[in-house]
Amino acid sequence: MLFVFAGVPKPFCDRLKARAIRELPVHSFTYRPLEKLTGYQVTEEYCNDVIESATKYARGNPSKVSDGIGVLLLLRPWERDCWRSRFNTFALYSSVRTNQPVESGTHGKQQANEQISALILSARKQVAAAAAISQETSSHSQRTPLLLPIRHFGGTKLREFLDEIESQVQTHPQPQEFVRQRCKEFEGELHPARSNRGGRSYVNDAGVMFAAPGRAVHGKSWGVQGDGHTPTCHLTALARVGGAIREGFHYDCTLRDGRAHSGTFLNCHDAPTVRHGKPHINVYPNDFIR
Fold this sequence. Notes:
Blueprint: E1 2-9, H1 13-23, E2 28-34, H2 44-60, E3 69-75, H3 84-87, E4 92-97, H4 105-139, H5 150-153, H6 156-169, H7 175-190, E5 193-194, E6 200-203, E7 208-211, H8 231-238, E8 239-240, E9 243-244, E10 251-255, E11 262-266, E12 272-276, E13 281-283
Parallel strand pairs: 1-2, 1-3, 3-4
Antiparallel strand pairs: 5-6, 6-7, 7-10, 8-9, 10-13, 11-12
Helix pairs in contact: 1-4, 2-8, 4-7
């Protein structure tokens, strides 16, 4: 599993690295130091830097994401915990609250150890949750609603469902059973039908049918650097609410009445994209459209 540590003051990062290597030996991690220039406060710009740093690591180490992604954010007494939505589309999110300002010297070392211990404890708690999500996205990829593209499928129910899964799975005593049960319940709400490719299909409120590809998995779900893609495009192609996404997984989208699905659509980085289905277009979980 890949852990992304964030909000850790720069003076504490060497200690974080040493302990994470020793105490999370079968996992991988990356981090973005929090600078004193910001008053040791997490900002929107800093979150963007964290996502960019995590993307660079994932590009260089794609196999490290195969067991999922978790974000661990350290916050100080004066900070609001308002960053979940920046990360939880692709990662499990946990915040760790410290009750102390950042200090140096002997007391600072003690602070560092206490805060890093709390982060590592939270990381360990994410492992079972990430395994449950990854089990769902791999073993049940042809039917799970967890992988539906958020923008293209539309509606608030899907977003609320994903938020519920991500926030509750980390504390549930039986995470795998919880995920499978909630997915089955949500499937019923969407009135699924069997696809002629062997998987499930779902129809959204606009009459667009999303058919799982069966064995016809192909193509990448993110673009090369350039092409307007952002770091978030890449991470949301790799993982959904902490669980890994199989490379190339996508939905074949047609209109329910059989007509070709064509038009101008917003893709994974909000760029208008013109596509003409013959009769379908490929839409990936991160809303990349091919």
